């Protein structure tokens, strides 16, 4: 099946009054990487969920080699040669790689015993250079490897088309290169890859063709060689994108947040922060660079009060807050924290957008008066914030679970950036956002800075960090390697520190 040709013809899908896909027609050339780009809420995931049989289109057809195929379940999709890896993996942690792969296999597969599956999976893994042990317990594999298991699973079930929804968002910068090499090998073997991303440089690296969506429609579908990042951004957002926010020079004030020799352990009881000392001033953005998992999460959590310190002290202005409770830090002292795992920590999926906007302030005026909710005020507040942050949705009464991934992020960022904190800790604020939204969020962070907030900005995306930070500190293995002034913080210099090479 090397000539597996997939086409979508006039696919439309509405949710209530919202047209998430509007007459989408798309040709995917066999043996290519086809990137799908578009703003948050443009309809990318919806389209892929239709292709994968999770949603039924209201109209339109899916064609394989010119023949219409009925895809009414993921099983039917796989039978038609189409597989998908979601952003949130669907593996069972306690089972082995092989068990996960053969799980739910019907017919043919059942006739083979497990040992035969192990052997065949091992062969398949080796032939594509996956480097996966078929007998490893999935839970013990790093995220990048779990992603490979998902892909291997699809290949084992003879998928010809692999749909990958923002696959690189779970990878560290070091893992992205090898991941792209893997995609190249799949391509050489004739597989077709549909690749959703917000990162234009990735499109330029790996894609053969690009389709840009906006408001449910296809705006352009073209070979990569006919376009460039600025052009793609323009088609996507409908205006010029700066790519680099304008940053005025700043005069920072006194030290607001100070960590003195702070050490802390991670959830497994191992040292995650190792005698970190740093200062963030009023009106300053202090960046924390580093490969994911080098203590960033623990750093943010100790400052927010979610994680106890093993030793060392934390000061806000001159007072020692090392033992202050989480709620006092947030409410009385003005330490705002936007966590990285916003799905786990930031939102209540069953609640409306409006309710999610007041998760911590619902009991205060104007949202509550004399013990009663004030729906008008709650709505107005949500309307104002969602319009400022360009959150795409049907109404503020909609359950937040129905918003696209990026728009959920925007709701939380809007809520957290709206208060008047003294200290703002943001972890990975640009993750999952489209280029226009990234620009906006970065501007908002600078607005806070200019108002005198001490900002700690944690990101694995070095370029985004260097765009907005005044100083950058690099975490490696729980240690603060060095702090560099932004004027001297070249990607090369910071990159070396990120790899643990001291200046
Ligand atoms: N089950 C649903 N019910 C109601 N609305 C939905 C549902 N699924 C998606 N939508 C809406 O359809 C639109 C398109 O969403 P989709 O998830 O396809 O966007 P996306 O392009 O993947 O965005 P992102 O880049 O943020 O992931 C959004 O406005 C979203 O709120
Ligand atoms: Mg999506």
Short account of what is shown:
The chain has two domains: 6-237, Rossmann fold (3-Layer(aba) Sandwich); 255-334 and 421-498, Rossmann fold (3-Layer(aba) Sandwich). The protein contains 18 helices and 22 strands.
Describe the protein.
The chain has two domains: 6-237, Rossmann fold; 255-334 and 421-498, Rossmann fold. The mean pLDDT is 89. It is an alpha/beta fold and 503 residues long. The chain has helices at residues 44-51, 74-79, 97-102, 108-111, 114-128, 143-156, 173-188, 200-206, 229-237, 296-304, 326-332, 342-345, 353-356, 375-388, 405-418, 435-450, 462-468, 491-498, and strands at residues 6-15, 18-28, 33-38, 59-64, 67-69, 82-85, 161-165, 192-196, 209-214, 217-223, 255-265, 271-281, 284-289, 311-316, 319-320, 335-338, 368-369, 372-373, 423-427, 454-458, 471-476, 479-485. It is globular, with a radius of gyration of 24 Å. It binds adenosine-5'-triphosphate and magnesium ion (MG). The site of magnesium ion has 4 residues, from helix 1.
């Amino acid at each position: 099946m090397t000539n597996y040709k997939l086409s979508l013809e006039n696919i439309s899908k509405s949710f209530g009054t919202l047209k998430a896909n509007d007459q989408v027609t798309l040709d995917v050339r066999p043996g290519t990487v086809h990137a799908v780009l578009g703003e948050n809420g443009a309809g990318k995931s919806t389209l892929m969920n239709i292709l994968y049989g999770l949603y039924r289109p209201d109209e339109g057809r899916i064609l394989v080699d010119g023949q219409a195929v009925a895809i009414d379940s993921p099983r039917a999709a796989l039978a038609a040669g189409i597989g998908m890896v979601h952003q949130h993996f669907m593996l069972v942690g306690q089972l082995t790689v092989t068990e996960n792969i053969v799980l739910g296999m019907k017919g043919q597969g059942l006739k083979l015993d497990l040992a035969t599956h192990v052997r065949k999976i091992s062969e398949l893994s080796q032939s594509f250079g996956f480097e996966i042990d078929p007998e490893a317990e999935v839970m013990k594999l790093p995220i990048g490897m779990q992603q490979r298991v998902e892909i291997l699973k699809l290949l084992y079930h003879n998928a010809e088309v692999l749909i990958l929804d923002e696959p690189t968002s779970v990878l560290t910068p070091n893992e992205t290169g090898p991941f792209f090499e893997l995609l190249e090998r799949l391509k050489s073997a004739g597989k077709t890859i549909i690749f959703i991303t917000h990162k234009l440089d990735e499109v330029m690296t790996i894609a053969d063709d690009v389709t840009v969506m906006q408001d449910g429609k296809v705006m352009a579908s073209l070979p990569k060689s006919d376009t460039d990042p600025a052009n793609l951004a323009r088609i996507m957002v409908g205006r010029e994108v700066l790519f680099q926010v304008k940053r005025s020079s700043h005069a920072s004030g006194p030290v607001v947040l100070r960590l003195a020799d702070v050490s802390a352990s991670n959830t497994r009881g191992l040292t995650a922060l190792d005698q970190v000392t740093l200062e963030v001033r009023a009106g300053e953005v202090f960046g924390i660079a580093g490969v994911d998992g080098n203590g960033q999460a623990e750093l943010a959590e100790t400052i927010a009060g979610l994680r106890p310190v093993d030793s060392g002290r934390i000061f806000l202005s001159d007072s020692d807050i090392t033992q202050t409770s989480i709620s006092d830090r947030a409410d009385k002292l003005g330490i705002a924290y936007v966590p990285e795992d916003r799905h786990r920590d930031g939102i209540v999926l069953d609640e409306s957008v409006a309710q999610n906007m007041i998760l911590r302030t619902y009991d205060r005026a104007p949202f509550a008066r004399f013990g009663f909710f004030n729906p008008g005020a709650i709505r107005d507040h949500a309307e104002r914030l969602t319009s400022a942050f360009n959150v795409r949705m049907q109404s503020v009464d909609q359950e937040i679970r129905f918003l696209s991934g990026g728009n959920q992020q925007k709701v939380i960022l809007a809520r957290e950036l709206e208060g008047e904190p003294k200290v703002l800790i943001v972890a990975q604020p640009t993750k999952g956002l489209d280029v226009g939204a990234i620009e906006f969020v970065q501007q908002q962070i600078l607005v806070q800075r200019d108002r005198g907030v001490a900002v700690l900005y944690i990101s694995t995306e070095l370029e985004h960090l260097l765009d907005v930070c005044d100083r950058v500190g690099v975490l490696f293995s729980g240690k603060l390697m060095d702090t560099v002034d932004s004027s001297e913080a070249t990607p090369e210099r910071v990159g070396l520190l990120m790899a643990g090479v001291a200046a």
